[in-house]
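Example 5.3 — Antibiotic biosynthesis monooxygenase
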Amino acid sequence: MAMQDNAFRPAIARVWRGRVPRDRADEYEAYNFEAGIRPLIEKALGVQTFREDRAGESEFVTISYWPSIAAMAAFTGADPTDVHHLPRDAEFLIELPRSVQILSLRQSHGRTG
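Solution (predicted structure tokens):
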């Protein structure tokens, strides 16, 4: 039973970052949710999205949580460290990210939900 519980416990975080011109941030946020985040919510254990607005650009950060690298790879269909750009990312993003960050979750404290 403990092994089954581990299937629902985050062990890996996948972090994606992208920047868009500030005047297109609201439009990109809506697009990113529909095209990228919504499908991710169905597969990952959890998803968090962040946005930092600056003078000329906005940075978006998406963190998804997974029980294992294998589970993440099953979703991405390939190497989970590869970036899978959304169809309109080139239209919005200042530059297309070349990588994602994969982190091992070591400890979690407090309530973050």
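Remark. The longest strand covers residues 12-21.
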